[in-house]
Amino acid sequence: MRFDRSFVQVPQCGPSRINLMTGLRPDTTRIYCLDDPPFDRSNFPGIVTLGEHFKNHGYRTQAIGKVFHNGRDDPPSWTEPTFENDGRNFMFLYADEAELAPDILT
Fold first, then answer.
1. Which residues, other chains included, contact 93 with Cβ-Cβ below 8 Å and sequence gap of 6+?
2. Cα–Cα distance, 54 to 29 (Å, whole number)
3. Are 16 and 36 in contact (CB under 8 A)?
4. What radius of gyration, in Å, describes the C-alpha atoms of the chain?
5. 53 has catalytic annotation
6. 71 neighbors 89 (Cβ within 8 angstroms)
7. How far apart are CA 100 and CA 72, in angstroms?
8. What pLDDT, on the 0 to 100 scale, is given for residue 91?
9. CA proximity to 39, closest of 19, 62, 61
């Protein structure tokens, strides 16, 4: 699908990512730039993220890359843990594509 007119409320990737994942605008989350505190779901009781919605409806969800932005994570959104279990604390997880989608890749 091609989007010819896609816009964001703030020209920063962090607030835009949070907007996409939560449906909340930056004037609600109060996250306008990269230096703002990370998204804190305790400020928004009952929020359901896009990943969490899919998880709640039977999908396997996993963050691969910086979904919320620069190490900011939201564990309730994922059925699989985000961080690699090797002592490093970052969100770039290298997946085995054949394991994730064996019927598509064979």
1. 62, 63, 64, 65, 82, 83, 84
2. 22
3. no
4. 15
5. no
6. yes
7. 23
8. 45
9. 19
Per the annotation, the verdict on 69 as an active-site residue is yes
Task: Identify the DSSP state of 88.
Answer: -
Q: Identify whether the C-beta of residue 78 lies closer than 8 Å to the C-beta of residue 93.
A: no
| E-strand stretches of 1-106 | none
Q: Are 87 and 97 in contact (CB under 8 A)?
A: no
Instruction: Give dist(CA 47, CA 104) in Å, integer.
Output: 33
% of the chain surpassing 90 pLDDT? 17
- Per-residue pLDDT band at 89 (split at 50, 70, 90): very low
Place of tokens 């190490």: 71
pLDDT of residue 90: 47
Q: What three-state secondary structure class fits 63?
A: coil
* Single-letter amino acid, residue 88: R
